[in-house]
Specification:
The complex is a heterotrimer of chains A (295), B (523) and C (314). By secondary structure, chain A is mainly alpha-helical. Helices cover 74% and strands 0% of the residues of chain A. The chains are: A mainly alpha (295), B alpha+beta (523), C mainly alpha (314).
Chain lengths: 295, 523, 314
C-alpha cells in the first residue's frame, strides 16, 4: 500500500513524536484549519449554550411572537414567542450530538462488518450481500423506515442514520482490510501464532483508521443534513426540543413573513456541514491524497 | 247591456294584460342588463392532498367529501344554515310514532350513466351502507325497507328515533344514492357514478383529480342554491383539484395564476396575498371546533379531579393566538345560531385560566407528580401547536408533562383505540357541532373512551326518544354540561376555514364550510 | 462475458430476497394501524375491525410474510391498501415523473460537475480552483429543502419565470414539461454537482501526477491532448462508477424535492405509504426500487469492466 498505511501500522510502535508531526501537517493544511475553526466554534457555542443565554429554549411568550431580530432577541422570535437565538444554540447541541453519534456508530458498525468480511473469507460473500441489500435503499428512505419503526425519539433518529451509513463505511473498511490481509507480514504474524483478534485489531484496524476517519467526517456532514431532511418530513427529533432541522421545518411556512426562523438554523446546518467537509478534505489530503473516498 | 259589460270586460282584460306586460318588461330589463353567468371554463383548486376514495359510504375526510358532494346526491341534505332539506326526495312523511319514514322521490333524475333513479337504487344504497360503512350503526335500528312503487321509499324502525331524518343529512359518510348495480361492490370498490352536477374525469392519485360537468344533470326545482340543497347549476366545464402539500406552494400557485382557488392557508400567511388585488381571502365560519380530548381510562386522567385540573389551566387566548387568527372563542359544543345552543347554561367550563384552582384540584386528587402524556401529530399544525402551548400551561401549574408528537396515523389510531399511553390529545370536529347532538354521540363516547357514565347514557336515551324539540334540547344540555364538567373533552375554539380565490376570474362563490363550485362561473 | 453478467445477476438474487424480507419486517414494526386510516379516524372500533379483516391484517405476521412471498413468486406485487390499485400500476404511474426529474437532474449534473472538476484540476491552486471548490463545497453543505423554498420565492413568486409546483407531462409540450422540472432538478443537482466536481478534481489531479502524463508532456504532446486523451478517459471511468451512487442520491433526495414542488413521484409515494402504513405498497415499491438499483449497479460494473480492461473480478 502506501507510505501512510505503513506509517499507520508503525504509528503504534513509534513514540508520540510521529503523531505530533501528523498534527502539525494537518494544521498547516488550509482547508483543515478553516474546517477545524468552524467546527470548534460551533461546538463551543453548543457546549456553552446555558452560559451564553439564560432563557429556556421551550419558554413561550405568546405576546412576543414573530418579532424580527433585535437587541433583545438577536435571532428574533418564532410562532410561540420563543427566542430563536436560544433555540439555535440548544439546537446545535442536539444536531451536533446526533451527527457525531450517528457517524461514530456508523463507523464502528461499518468497521466491525468490514473487518469481519475482510478477514473471514467465507463470511465475506454473505456479509457483502447483506451490505448490498442495505445499500440498495437510498439512505433517507431507510432512515425514514427505521425512524418510523422505532418511534419518534432522538435515539431512533441516531440509529436510523447510523444504519443508513453503515454499509458505506463497511465497504471502505473492507477495501482497506482486504489489501492488508494480503501483505506478507500478516502471514508472518499468523505463522508466529497470533490469533484472529490480534491480527484484526493490531494490524488491520490501524490501517483502516485513516480512510475510516475521513469517511467519518463526511458522514457527519451527511448526518447533519439528513437530520434536517427528516425533520422537514416531520419525523426528526420530536418537538418541543429544538434541533436545527426542526427549527427550520417549523419556520418553513413563514419563510417570507418570519425569514429569521429559517435562516439562522439553516446557516448553522450549512456551516456545520461545510466545516466537516473541509476537515475531511484536510484529513484526506494529509493522511493519503490517493484515498478514493466517496467525499 | 250585455255587450256593454263584455266590452268593459274586454277592455279590462286588455288593460290587465298591458299592465302585466309592462311589469314583466320592467323586471326583465334590469335582469337583461346584468349578464347571466355563462357556461364554460375550468377552475383550478389547490388543496393539500387528494381524496383517498370516492366511495361516499366510506368517506370521512374533507378532501374526499369536497369532491364527493359534487358527484352524488342524497334523499336529504344540509342547506345554507345546515338544517335538513330534501334533495332527491320530493316530500318526506314521518309517522306520529317516529318509527316509519316515507320518502317520495323526484321523477326523472338521471345518474351519470344515463339511467333513471328509482326506489330500487335507494334500497340497494341503504343495504350496502349497512354492510360497508363505518357509520353503519346509524342504521342499526332499521327493521325493514319497502319500495311500494319506483318513486316511494319507506324505512321502518324498531324503535322511535325522532331525529332519523336529521341523521340522514350527514355530510360525513353521506347517505348519497348509488345505482343499484353497485350493491355488492366492496368498500372503496364502486364505480364513481352518482346523480350530482359533476362526474368523474381524470384522476391521478398523487397529482390531480378532474371532475367534468354532467350535461344530463336534473336539478331540483326548489329555491337554490341553498347549501347543498335546492336548484344547483353547473356553469364550469370542469374543476381540477391539484394536490399541493406545501402551504408555500399553494400560495405561490395562487399568486402566479397557476391556481384559482387555494385551501388551508395558514392565517399568518394571509398577508402575502394582500398585495394581489385579484385575490379574495376570506375566513369561513363555522368550520370546525377544536377540543382537547382527555382519556378517561388512562391513569392519571381516569381521575375526574385531574381532568378538571387540566381544564382549569387552559388559557384559550394564547392557544388561539398560536393556532391561527382564524379561530374564535365559543364555550359551547354547538354554534350560537343552532337550535340546540344552551347559552349561559353551559358556560363556566371554558377558558378557565386558573392555575391556582388547578393546583388546588391536583392537591385534592392526591397528585404526586405522575406523568401526564400529551400526544399530537406533525401533520396538522394547529393540533401540534395547541398541545405545545397546553404543555407549557400545565407545567406552570406544577404538572409533570410529557409531549409525544407522532404522525397522524399513529395519533388517530391511538385516539380511536385508546392505546399508546396518551392522556390528552386534540382534534377538530367539523360536522358534529354543525349537525347536532345525534352526530355527536359516537364521538363523545369514543375518543375520551367514556365508560359507565349513567348521566350520559340516560340523557342520550331521552334525546332519541323525545319527539318534542324542547325535550331533546333539555337532554342535550344535560349531555353537554356533563361532558364539559367531567372534562372528557375540553373546548378550545371555533376554527374558521381560510380560503383564497381569484375573484377577478370567478364569480358566484358562496361561503360554506365545505367548499363547493356549483353556481360558480367564469367571468 | 456472459458468464460474468449471469453470475452478477445470480449474486443479486439473494440480495433482492434480503431486501424484500427486511422491508417486510421493517414495515410491520411500525406502530399505528392502516385500518384506522382507511376506515376514517371517526369510525367505530367494530368498523375498524371489519376493515382489518377485509385486508387480511388480522392474520399472524409470519403468515402474512409467507403469503406475500408466495404472491411475489407469481409476479403479484400486491395491492395498495390506501390507493386501491396494484403496486405495479401505482409505481408505473409515478415512474415517469421520478425518471424525468432524475434525467433532467443527471443531464445538468454530469457536464457541469465534470467541467468544474476538470478545470479546477487544470488550474490547480489558483483562485479559480479555490473558487470552484468553494462553490462545490457549498453545494454539498446546503439543506436542499431550504434552497428549494428560497428558490420558489425568488423564481416563481417574485420573478414569475418558472412554475412553483406540479408536474406537466411531456405530451403537453417540451417547454412546459421542462419548465416545471428545472427548479426541482437544479435543487437536486446542487449536491450532486458539488460531489462530482470534488471527486473529478481529485481524480484528475491524481492522473495528472502520473508518470505517463509526464512522459507524454516530455514527448511534446500538447497540454490539451494530454488532458483530453489520458486524464479525461480515466476520470470518465470513475464518473461511471459513481453514477450509480449519484442515481441513488437522486432517488433519495427526490423525496424532499418532490414534496416541496408537489411532484407525484416515487419518492413521495414511498414516504406517504410509510406514513399511512400501507404495507403492500411500501414493500412492493422498496422491492422494485431495490431491483432497479441492483440492476443499475450491475450495469455499471459491467461498463466499468468493459471500459477499463485492467480491472479484474473475483
Amino acid at each position: 500500500m502506501t507510505d501512510a498505511a505503513i506509517e499507520g501500522t508503525a504509528a503504534q510502535a513509534l513514540p508520540a513524536r510521529r503523531r505530533f508531526v501528523l498534527a502539525r501537517r494537518l494544521f498547516r493544511h488550509r482547508s483543515f484549519r478553516i474546517g477545524f475553526a468552524i467546527v470548534a466554534l460551533l461546538v463551543l457555542a453548543a457546549v456553552l449554550a446555558p452560559v451564553i443565554t439564560s432563557v429556556e429554549p421551550t419558554a413561550m411568550q405568546i405576546r412576543y411572537r414573530f418579532r424580527p431580530p433585535s437587541w433583545q432577541f438577536p435571532f428574533g422570535t418564532d410562532m410561540f414567542g420563543r427566542d430563536v437565538f436560544t433555540r439555535v444554540l440548544y439546537g446545535a447541541r442536539l444536531s451536533l450530538w446526533i451527527g457525531f453519534t450517528a457517524s461514530l456508530l456508523a463507523a464502528i458498525g461499518g468497521a466491525l462488518l468490514g473487518l469481519t468480511a475482510a478477514y473471514y473469507k467465507p463470511l465475506d460473500s454473505l456479509l457483502m450481500r447483506f451490505n448490498d441489500a442495505l445499500l440498495a435503499f437510498p439512505a433517507i428512505l431507510l432512515a425514514i423506515g427505521i425512524n418510523a419503526a422505532l418511534g419518534p425519539q432522538i435515539q431512533s433518529v441516531i440509529i436510523a442514520l447510523a444504519a443508513a451509513y453503515v454499509p458505506r463505511t463497511a465497504r471502505i473498511v473492507r477495501a482497506s482490510g482486504l489489501v492488508i490481509r494480503e501483505l506478507d507480514y500478516i502471514d508472518a504474524a499468523r505463522v508466529s501464532g497470533a490469533g484472529a483478534g490480534r491480527i484484526i485489531f493490531r494490524h488491520m484496524l490501524p490501517n483502516c483508521l485513516a480512510p475510516l476517519l475521513v469517511s467519518l467526517t463526511f458522514i457527519f456532514a451527511y448526518a447533519i443534513l439528513a437530520e434536517a431532511a427528516l425533520s422537514f418530513l416531520g419525523i426528526g427529533p420530536p418537538p418541543p426540543a429544538p434541533s436545527w432541522g426542526n427549527i427550520v421545518s417549523e419556520g418553513r411556512d413563514y419563510s417570507v413573513e418570519a425569514w429569521w426562523i429559517m435562516l439562522f438554523p439553516g446557516l448553522g446546518i450549512s456551516l456545520a456541514a461545510l466545516g466537516m467537509n473541509l476537515l475531511g478534505d484536510g484529513l484526506r489530503d494529509v493522511l493519503d491524497p490517493r484515498l478514493k473516498i466517496e467525499s | 247591456m250585455e255587450r256593454h259589460k263584455m266590452l268593459r270586460r274586454a277592455t279590462l282584460r286588455r288593460a290587465l294584460a298591458a299592465a302585466f306586460a309592462g311589469a314583466f318588461l320592467a323586471a326583465a330589463v334590469p335582469a337583461a342588463l346584468e349578464a347571466a353567468p355563462k357556461k364554460g371554463g375550468t377552475l383550478v383548486y389547490a388543496n393539500t392532498s387528494g381524496p383517498g376514495t370516492l366511495d361516499p359510504q366510506v368517506s370521512a375526510s374533507m378532501v374526499d367529501l369536497e369532491v364527493v358532494h359534487h358527484m352524488y346526491e342524497g334523499l336529504v341534505t344540509i342547506d345554507e344554515t345546515y338544517a335538513t332539506k330534501p334533495l332527491l326526495a320530493s316530500s318526506i312523511d314521518v309517522a306520529p310514532d317516529g318509527k316509519t319514514f316515507t320518502f317520495k322521490l323526484r321523477k326523472g333524475v338521471k345518474f351519470h350513466s344515463g339511467q333513471e333513479l328509482t326506489s330500487a337504487d335507494v334500497k340497494a344504497t341503504f343495504e350496502r351502507y349497512a354492510k360497508v360503512s363505518p357509520n353503519a350503526s346509524a342504521l342499526a335500528e332499521v327493521e325493514s325497507y319497502e319500495t311500494p312503487d319506483p318513486y316511494t321509499f319507506v324505512v321502518k324502525l324498531k324503535t322511535t328515533n325522532s331525529v332519523f331524518v336529521d341523521v340522514l343529512k350527514t355530510p360525513v359518510y353521506p347517505f348519497v344514492i348509488l345505482p343499484a348495480d353497485q350493491k355488492d361492490k366492496p368498500a372503496r370498490g364502486i364505480d364513481a357514478v352518482g346523480t350530482g352536477p359533476y362526474k368523474l374525469g381524470e384522476w391521478m392519485k398523487d397529482s390531480h383529480l378532474v371532475i367534468n360537468r354532467f350535461d344530463g344533470y336534473v336539478a331540483d326545482e326548489r329555491k337554490g342554491p341553498d347549501g347543498f340543497a335546492g336548484a344547483r347549476t353547473a356553469y364550469l366545464d370542469s374543476i381540477r383539484y391539484n394536490f399541493v402539500p406545501e402551504a408555500n406552494a399553494r400560495i405561490a400557485a395562487l399568486q402566479t395564476g397557476e391556481a384559482d382557488f387555494a385551501a388551508l392557508i395558514p392565517p399568518d400567511l394571509m398577508k402575502r396575498l394582500e398585495s394581489s388585488p385579484d385575490i379574495e381571502v376570506s375566513t369561513v365560519f363555522p368550520y370546525c371546533q377544536q377540543y382537547f380530548i382527555v382519556h378517561s381510562q388512562q391513569a392519571p386522567t381516569d381521575n375526574p379531579l385531574i381532568r378538571q385540573a387540566i381544564r382549569n389551566v387552559v388559557a384559550v387566548d394564547e392557544i388561539i393566538a398560536v393556532t391561527g387568527g382564524g379561530a374564535r372563542r365559543n364555550h359551547s359544543m354547538v354554534y350560537p345560531d343552532g337550535e340546540y345552543y344552551g347559552g349561559k347554561v353551559t358556560e363556566g367550563r371554558y377558558d378557565n385560566n386558573d392555575p391556582e384552582k388547578a393546583k388546588a384540584l391536583l392537591k385534592e386528587a392526591g397528585y404526586k407528580g405522575e406523568k401526564i402524556v400529551l400526544q399530537s401529530n406533525t401533520s396538522y399544525g394547529y393540533m401540534r401547536d395547541a398541545v405545545l402551548v397546553l404543555a407549557e400551561q400545565m407545567k406552570a401549574a406544577g404538572m409533570n408533562v410529557d409531549v409525544d408528537i407522532v404522525d397522524w396515523t399513529t395519533n388517530a389510531s391511538n385516539m380511536q383505540k385508546g392505546t399508546g399511553g396518551w392522556n390528552v390529545s386534540t382534534t377538530g370536529f367539523c360536522s358534529n357541532p354543525l349537525l347536532g347532538p345525534q352526530q355527536w354521540k359516537t364521538m363523545i363516547y369514543n375518543f375520551p373512551h367514556v365508560k359507565d357514565d349513567k348521566v350520559l347514557d340516560d340523557a342520550f336515551a331521552k334525546f332519541f326518544a323525545s319527539l318534542d324539540l324542547k325535550d331533546r334540547k333539555d337532554a342535550w344540555l344535560t349531555i353537554e354540561q356533563r361532558v364539559l364538567d367531567q372534562a372528557y373533552m375540553i373546548k378550545v375554539s371555533d376554527r374558521g376555514a381560510v380560503k383564497a380565490y381569484n375573484k377577478a376570474k370567478f364569480g358566484g362563490v358562496r361561503p360554506y364550510y365545505m367548499t363547493n363550485f356549483w353556481d360558480v362561473y367564469r367571468k | 462475458m456472459t458468464r460474468i453478467i449471469a453470475s452478477r445477476f445470480a449474486q443479486a438474487v439473494p440480495v433482492m430476497f434480503l431486501v424484500a424480507v427486511l422491508t417486510f419486517f421493517l414495515m410491520h414494526l411500525l406502530p399505528g394501524d392502516p385500518a384506522v386510516i382507511i376506515a376514517g379516524d371517526q369510525a367505530s372500533p367494530e368498523a375498524i375491525e371489519r376493515v382489518r379483516r377485509q385486508l387480511g391484517l388480522d392474520r399472524p405476521v409470519l403468515e402474512q410474510l409467507l403469503l406475500w412471498i408466495f404472491h411475489l413468486l407469481q409476479g403479484d406485487f400486491g395491492t395498495s391498501l390506501i390507493l386501491n390499485q396494484s403496486v405495479v400500476s401505482a409505481v408505473a404511474e409515478r415512474l415517469p415523473i421520478t425518471l424525468s426529474l432524475a434525467l433532467v437532474s443527471f443531464v445538468i449534473t454530469i457536464p457541469v460537475g465534470i467541467a468544474l472538476g476538470v478545470t479546477a484540476a487544470c488550474f490547480r491552486d489558483t483562485w479559480f480552483d479555490a473558487g470552484v471548490m468553494a462553490v462545490a463545497l457549498v453545494g454539498v453543505s446546503l439543506p436542499n429543502f431550504w434552497v428549494a423554498i428560497l428558490s420558489v420565492i425568488l423564481f416563481s413568486v417574485t420573478l414569475g419565470w418558472l412554475p412553483s409546483a406540479g408536474y406537466v407531462p411531456i405530451d403537453r409540450g417540451l417547454w412546459p414539461w421542462l419548465a416545471a422540472l428545472i427548479q426541482p432538478a437544479v435543487v437536486l443537482a446542487l449536491f450532486q454537482i458539488g460531489f462530482l466536481a470534488r471527486m473529478t478534481r481529485s481524480e484528475m489531479l491524481e492522473v495528472l501526477d502520473q508518470d505517463y502524463i509526464r512522459t507524454a508532456r516530455a514527448k511534446g504532446v500538447t497540454e490539451w491532448q494530454t488532458v483530453a486523451k489520458h486524464a479525461f478517459r480515466n476520470t470518465l471511468v470513475s464518473v461511471i462508477t459513481v453514477s450509480g451512487y449519484i442515481l441513488s442520491l437522486l432517488i433519495g433526495g427526490s423525496v424532499i424535492v418532490e414534496q416541496v414542488f408537489a411532484l407525484p413521484g416515487i419518492g413521495r409515494l414511498l414516504v406517504q405509504a410509510i406514513m399511512a402504513r400501507d404495507y403492500p405498497l411500501v414493500q412492493g415499491t422498496m422491492l422494485l426500487l431495490g431491483f432497479a438499483f441492483v440492476f443499475i449497479n450491475v450495469m455499471i460494473d459491467l461498463i466499468y469492466t468493459a471500459v477499463d480492461p485492467r480491472v479484474r473480478y473475483d
